[in-house]
## 1
Amino acid sequence: MVSPVIGITCCFNEKTGRIWLTKYYIEAVAAAGGVPVVLPVLAPVSRIKELLSICHGLLLPGGGDIDPLQFGEEPHPNNGEICPQCDYFELQAAVKALELEMPILGICRGAQVLNVAAGGTVCQDIAHEIEKPIKHFQQAPRWHPTHTIIIEPNSKLKGIIGSRVVKVNSFHHQMVGKLGGNFKVSAQAPDGVIEAIEDNGTDKFVLGVQYHPEAMWRNDKYSQNLFKALVNAAKNFNVKQNCINSKSTL
Ligand code: MN
């Protein structure tokens, strides 16, 4: 078959009116053999179904904090900048992609979007949730790993990454809170911070990581493995099925 198309959502800057995405996601998907296509977060939500119908997989990238009202909580004082347009578009896209059983990889904010789309919550500030947190907002180059994660032995992530303990980068002050849908925790930092979630007990490729493999893959085979796994899962996803099976009114 032709190379699978990986739809990647993006960010929006209200002040400049620009939608944007750092190049790393595009490079990482392309290097893994996928065709990256940016899905504009300002497209009408009524067109999400059509946008996804040209994709074999969905990548939800990093970005700002999700509006806590989206998961039924009032904002913690340390909650950061929010983009209502991004929240609305990405949550709807994630809901739709979950319904289609499309391969999904969520990265950082994307892992949190995935969890909220499945009915879960976000822990709004690690420092107030974890008793003795390690540093999760590193002051080192983005490609440089600064803490370890421990991967669950019986997880899909372990099968994909190929190792149980890996070093990752870290740029977050939030993490997945209450798990949504059928998700389970598949990796944690030594302080207990959730670093990866995945769909439990099915063959579906639906997973989220809190770190940024798109910034590490050039030097890190474990990060490469993650993007290759997304592209391989997307190869097996049938776009025609995607259109035919879709019953949503979105
Ligand atoms: Mn971290």
## 2
Amino acid sequence: MVDKKTIDPAVKEMMEKAKADGIITAFDRAESTKACPIGHVGSCCKNCHMGPCRLVGKTTVGVCGATIDTVAARNLARAIAAGAASHSDHGRGMAFTLLAAANGEAPDYKIKDANKLMRVAEYLEVPTKDRSNEEIAADVARAALADFGSLKGEVSYVKRAPEKRKELWSKLGVTPRGVDREVVETMHRTHVGNDQDAEHIMMHAARTSLGDGWGGSMLSTDISDILFGTPSPVASRSNFGVLAEDEVNVVVHGHEPTLSELIVVAANSPDVLDYAKSKGAKGINIVGICCTANEVLMRQGVPLLGNFLSQELAIATGVIEAMVVDIQCIMQGIVDAAETTHTKIITTSPKAKITGATHIEFHEDKALETAKLILKTAIDNYPNRKNVQIPDYTDRIIAGFSHEYIAYMQGGVYRESFRPLNDAISSGRIRGAAGVVGCNNPRITHDDPHLEVVKELIKNDVLVVTTGCNAIACAKQGLLTPEVMEYAGAGLREVCEAIGIPPVLHMGSCVDNSRILTVLAQCVNEGGLGEDISDLPVAGFAPEWMSEKALSIGCYFVTSGVRTWMGGTSPIEGSEMLTKLVGEDWNNVFGATWHFEPDWQKTVEEALAHIDAKRKALNLEEYVPGKYAKSNTYFPADYTSDEEFAKYSRTRAK
Ligand code: NFS
């Protein structure tokens, strides 16, 4: 059990209200449902009906003879395959939407970023000369769809990786061919009586995860940019205070921007607004939860209500007319929570229904019409509010740092490059960079390791890029604004002030972790920091992970060359061999290792030592803390303590 359930004051306030209203949340269920100690460490095999075999105590092999190492590797590989499938099936959906838009079958969608379309066409080898955007887009969509079950030797985007990394993957036989093929092969290999060598199983898990990162997820990000625009910095707000007392509140929750973008459009149409006013509301307030929130924040500035663990508590406010969900990270518990209030849970994806929810299926050919119907349902519900309470906490944020914008901000349209960033790293102004990403987990104090890891990194001059629920945690506690320089080390602060960026860059949703891969490849290709991603002084973190998608991300970070730490307990703790394989031996295979470590402080210490070792190997200038300080007046003595943090945090009552 965790000592504290959350550090977010708004979430705390809602927990009290939920308790009073009889709403049971994931926080409560995590307390009453003990994790199965055998499955939790990867030692339970249920891949056939001779079992499940629980490999514990004197039982060291399953009925078929499978060892604990084989069982743990099969479980991990299957989880990675499920994560890769989720990201990539989302990506496939985006490709189908682009195809429909290009063919005129989805009239409410347009090609918003023609420049990006041209760049993607080049990657996918689609001819562009003397062709209309629609013709190009249709071929781009077809090429993307073909990539999923590719007949070729490799997914198209592998070409975006540094030469050395591509050669390594090819030598190891892990270059992903197509994510469908890798996922299917994982399921095949892990069926009873098939691949029974842990190391061999994990090599294929690596290939599957690479199919996600450099295939499905990267395509998803690129196609979303073509359809809805490539993000650039946008200001917005976050936390429960974004809910409006006198407007119809609609929460978009899930992952695909296809629906949420259209809901934003519909909410601004005069007929819908007039209808809302006819019911006594002043307007319509769209806010987001989970990664769909990051998608519409980055492109439309839609405020963030909260991350994964806020979904049930949001309902407890009593002011949400509709929670509109599509796919992934949606707790079934929201339906029960909604029973106590007037909130309508509306499922929309043909792939995901929830018993007890209202299903209004969303199809691209009638996108705006469906979005309006959903909003009308929410508006009709506005007069039904009963017991309302909005926690009065909010903070300002700046989000929207796509890899394109990061290149642009370092030199403008004509001179965009990664040179200033690479130079800042070489000189030791910036010690290194880290991607901090991933979920919440009620078995870990909500948002606590997320924030501590980020604060400690920037204090130590490590530039942070963030996505997913970490990005939302940072947003809620004031870490996504330039003012957060107060927490940053002197060198990092100087660089960020010169470029005009915060030291924590919001890069989007979880599929947008592919943007981080692109940035890493661009840093290598810029020159001066080695020849491979594994040469860079960088690290990856998922401090509060829980989902299979997070395992796929962790695995592709590592197999792309980024040493990575996942918080909480280890899903492979049952196998010493497997723990050593990914945590030590993979350094000689992929040039990076993968760690599961509950002590966040230890993860940061190890990461800083790792960053320094990489700097040394590259013969970069020695990093000296405070070397670039103009004065130390802006260094709070110990701003990682709760008191100091409270002083500097701008999470406050409105
Ligand atoms: Ni990603 Fe985790 Fe979900 Fe987003 Fe949040 S829980 S793996 S961060 S919302 S996908």
## 3
Amino acid sequence: MESSAPARVDAAINALQLVEYPHPALLRRTKPVVRLDADLRDAVARMFDIMYEAQGVGLAANQVALPYRLFVVNVAGQRGDGEELVFINPVLSRPRGTAVQEEGCLSLPGVRMDVRRPERVAVEAWSLEGEPIRLDLDGLLARVVQHEFDHLEGRLFTDRLPEAAALEVRRDLESFREVFVGKQSRGELPGTAALLAELDRLEAARCVA
Ligand code: ZN
């Protein structure tokens, strides 16, 4: 990863906001970041603002329609409390144990379900300062990091439910889809082809092909 000179201000980063299922940014795998420019640093700061405002404890870049392999976490969920962590190009390894805990997601507001995940996991990533991060995680931080990592893979926590629970949320997902398509048809959101073209543009600016 290189640090480069400030680029021109990217309008997309100026206008960051949460997107909801089934925005295409949430449904495709993000690309590793190779250019950590001033816009992207600005985006990370805004991601923390958006996360706190929405009362979240973690936020992946593609939840604000940035197709980049990075997420932010603060398990305390409040500015000035806990530790603000930025994980860039994270890799998870050494999953151990199993834990079941209820999860929600800022991309699926109102949906909460029990999710089974490894209890502990190791993560390697880069910080915003370009320093390597190597942590062995357990508890809430392990859970949040795995939830956010799933986002980067284009997965939501609803993809990890057992069959009965998956059926239970299917109607919720359909409602989200109807709302999303409705906004598109009224011109409140761009069409899917335009959304995908914007993701391609953002990838081309800061990722390897
Ligand atoms: Zn989420």
## 4
Amino acid sequence: MQPIKSEFEKVVYEGGFRVLLSQEKIDKRIVELGRQITEDYRGLQPIIIGVLNGAFIFMADLIRRIEIDVEVDFIKISSYGDAKKSSGRVMMLKDINAEITGRHVLLVEDIVDTGLSLEFLHQKFSALKPASLKYVSFLVKPDSVKTNIHIDYVGFEIPSEFVVGYGLDYKQILRNLPAVYIMD
Ligand code: IMP
Ligand code: MG
């Protein structure tokens, strides 16, 4: 009997998925973002808040390209469940622990699709009166976004297709792909 192939193996070795962003391209862009954030936040010791689960890989790489003191925290929300389309509802599954009133807060998202999650996060965090509140998203789908909230730092603008890898999942798997692939 043949062992069952993992989805990971199918993506990486069978070429069924197209690479949208290579590891090299991602690394290069993160160096640029890190440099920009370093300059913008010098002397401010920001709290960088990652939105779990999707943002954990991007955040880990990004903060290592930031060359000032930063604090980190995480919030966990869910809007998709296991489907490819947003459920239209956002639930908070884990709150931050840090006190952010009067602090400089930079929120790290994996991807902004409709912007519903961002709206939810914006309402929650702006109510806590931080000294400043900015957003960085690894990916943005400009053709899908329905919010006016400004995203201060954008890794890449991508077409409105479902992507996986580099933290982004399909049904909770494929987050560990080192590049970003389009899932047809
Ligand atoms: P939004 O609330 O519609 O902006 O969607 C935000 C969340 O949906 C993201 O943080 C992701 O977890 C998920 N999501 C949106 N598009 C994709 C995708 O192409 N691949 C994987 N997850 C996605
Ligand atoms: Mg997700």
